[in-house]
């Protein structure tokens, strides 16, 4: 099964939700010219890392963002791995990835499990508790957020439960671009899965971001990679290739989980 995916590598206006909704909407419109099946947005794309004002600007139960994504998905008949948003709940504010199907249904919400202290997330955000496993058109995927890719055991927990492609949404700084690229390629090779990673472009008061969204195949080959600036990155993935690679080197059969 071949699936076309587009990553919206957008710059994000710091703390300005309405501006970001408008920008995302127009970039998605543009991405639709290539007729993707799935569109991916970056991490915290409605607010950026405006963490000190989260109390004021976080989306109550992510309602506004969910409704925005549902409308867009239905209008364009496209699945959305709708990036993450600051989601105000009774358990604190979560960094929540929203998956919306082309029928306008909220399929899954995944809240970032590993909070990134270097960017003060632990001071303003609460951590999630559940996996980012979801299904679209009968196909199982995993979805994780940025810093999560440094935890191979977390990614493995998704691929052992059937994920054949991993979506990563991120605000990854340019200062660690080589980590971003290497970790994504490693996660693809060791899990023999596709990795579709959507980073943001631009800068905020604290960081310059790396861009370099990537689509990587289960052999670790880069199918498409963006530059540093704002860009829509599109590529096709063929999920049969996952089975082929897993047959050639059967790491899922050869694992010794009883020993580690
Ligand atoms: N937004 C993030 O989680 C950034 C993670 C990061 O930069 C890293 O080096 O890890």
Automatic annotation (TrEMBL):
<dbReference type="InterPro" id="IPR003010">
    <property type="entry name" value="C-N_Hydrolase"/>
</dbReference>
<dbReference type="InterPro" id="IPR036526">
    <property type="entry name" value="C-N_Hydrolase_sf"/>
</dbReference>
<keyword id="KW-0378">Hydrolase</keyword>
<feature type="domain" description="CN hydrolase">
    <location>
        <begin position="3"/>
        <end position="239"/>
    </location>
</feature>
<protein>
    <submittedName>
        <fullName>Carbon-nitrogen family hydrolase</fullName>
    </submittedName>
</protein>
<dbReference type="InterPro" id="IPR001110">
    <property type="entry name" value="UPF0012_CS"/>
</dbReference>
<dbReference type="Pfam" id="PF00795">
    <property type="entry name" value="CN_hydrolase"/>
</dbReference>
<dbReference type="GO" id="GO:0016787">
    <property type="term" value="F:hydrolase activity"/>
</dbReference>
<comment type="similarity">
    <text>Belongs to the carbon-nitrogen hydrolase superfamily. NIT1/NIT2 family.</text>
</comment>
């Amino acid at each position: 099964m071949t699936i076309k995916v587009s990553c919206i590598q957008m710059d994000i206006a710091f703390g300005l939700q309405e501006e970001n909704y408008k920008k995302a909407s127009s970039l998605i419109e543009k991405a639709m010219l290539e007729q993707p099946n799935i569109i991916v947005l970056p991490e915290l794309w409605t607010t950026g890392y405006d963490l000190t004002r989260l109390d004021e600007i976080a989306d109550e139960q992510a309602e506004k963002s969910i409704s925005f994504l549902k409308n867009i998905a239905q209008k364009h008949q496209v699945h959305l791995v709708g990036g993450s948003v600051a989601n105000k709940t009774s358990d604190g504010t979560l960094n929540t990835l929203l998956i919306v199907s082309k029928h306008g249904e909220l399929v899954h919400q995944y809240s970032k499990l590993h909070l990134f202290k270097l960017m003060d997330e632990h001071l303003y955000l609460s951590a999630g508790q559940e996996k980012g496993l979801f299904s679209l058109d009968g196909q199982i995927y995993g979805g994780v957020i940025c810093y999560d890719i440094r935890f191979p055991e977390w990614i493995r927990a998704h691929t052992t439960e059937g994920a054949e492609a991993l979506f990563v949404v991120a605000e990854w700084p340019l200062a660690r671009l080589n980590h971003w690229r290497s970790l994504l390629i490693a996660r693809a090779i060791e899990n023999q899965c596709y990795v579709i990673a959507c980073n943001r472009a631009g800068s905020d008061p604290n960081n310059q971001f790396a861009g370099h969204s990537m689509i990587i195949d289960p052999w670790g080959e880069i199918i498409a990679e963006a530059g540093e600036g704002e860009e829509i990155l599109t590529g096709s993935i063929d999920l049969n290739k996952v089975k082929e690679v897993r047959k050639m080197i059967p790491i899922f059969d050869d694992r010794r989980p009883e020993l580690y």
